[in-house]
Amino acid sequence: MTCRLRLQSILGVSRSSICERRFSPARTKPRVWFSTSAYRAEVGMERSDRSKVSDGMVVVGDPQLLENKKAAIRNAGPGKLQVIADFDATLTKYRINGCCGQTSHNLLQQSNPEYDIKRQELYEYYHPLEFSPIIPIEEKTKLMVEWWEKTHALLIEGGLTCDDIKKSVESATIEFREGVFELFEFLEEIGVPVLIFSAGLADIIEEVLRQKLRKSFKNIKIVSNRMIFSKDGHLVSFKGKTIHVLNKNEHALDMAAPLHDHLGGNDGPINDNASVKKRTNVLLLGDHMGDLGMSDGLNYENRIAVGFLNDNIEKSIGNYQEAFDVVYLNDAPMWGVVELVSQICSSENH
Ligand SMILES: [Mg+2]
């Protein structure tokens, strides 16, 4: 069964109806959409009903603008499209069994637990500084570099091994959102590259992908801090410039590395960085306002930004609705994005 046919059965609608489902032109005012069961049913709900937020809700601030962007991307074809995604709490779930899931940053456990304590102490000191409203950005950037470099030094000093990473991921509380596998599979089938940007550690993200998805996708590249190991599997250094929370968008494309190389895939990369830069239509996925900057290095023509607002919904929904074209609430699954991709990659309109 092809990926397209599987999507058809997963979404519970025919291929043509996936592609033809549109927001009604009459719906020009911002509305909140309520999906009761993984996009099999939609019921319109006005803004004033935000207090009724529940699982699977999606907010579209300007349906007409979204429709225009979708049409432009669809008309240009999948050959012009790329997906840029944040990793933690965007591709992965924010909550697992009612508790906050771990991130690629905090799941790592070294063989020597003293070093976990030291890294936690750094976190407790620097994390409040990251969100301080009174520290100027230049100073904050210096502090973030300091934090990341000290953390990386502790990983080396503590003798981190490849095996530590494997075991840490095995015991971590981290899961992908439902539909992520199908999204990657569909994008691979139609030759659309996915760049995953993270200020965490590429090696950990790759291990999470390997263990949780059990498939290497040749269209996925990780842009994150990459480790260099000695022959006996001990961390000895890091490759290239440190990527931290405040610079993860700068020069990130140049640091992209093909994931499948690391995973030992046999096929060559389907896209190099240059061709990625030529893909001027972007589907961006993020859970923070700062993730919108992930496409800054590209001179894009059209961009659909999808935001996952996982927490503090009442406080943040206004800003998210302004900044993102589509906002998913309450740790929603990825099915809405699967459907969106299916719509904008429809071959029926070009
Ligand atoms: Mg995130």
From TrEMBL:
Listed InterPro entries: HAD-like_sf, HAD_sf, Pyrimidine_nucleotidase_eu
SUPFAM superfamilies in UniProt: HAD-like
Keywords associated with the record: Hydrolase, Magnesium, Metal-binding, Nucleotide metabolism, Nucleotide-binding
Pfam families linked: UMPH-1
Catalyzed reactions per annotation: a ribonucleoside 5'-phosphate + H2O = a ribonucleoside + phosphate
Coiled-coil ranges (or none): none
EC code: 3.1.3.5
The protein's enzyme class: hydrolase
GO biological process, one term: nucleotide metabolic process
The keyword Metal-binding is annotated on this UniProt entry: yes
A GO MF label: 5'-nucleotidase activity
Top-level lineage group: Eukaryota
GO cellular component, one term: cytoplasm
Family assignment from sequence similarity: Belongs to the pyrimidine 5'-nucleotidase family.
Protein name per the record: 5'-nucleotidase
Originating species: Nelumbo nucifera (Sacred lotus)
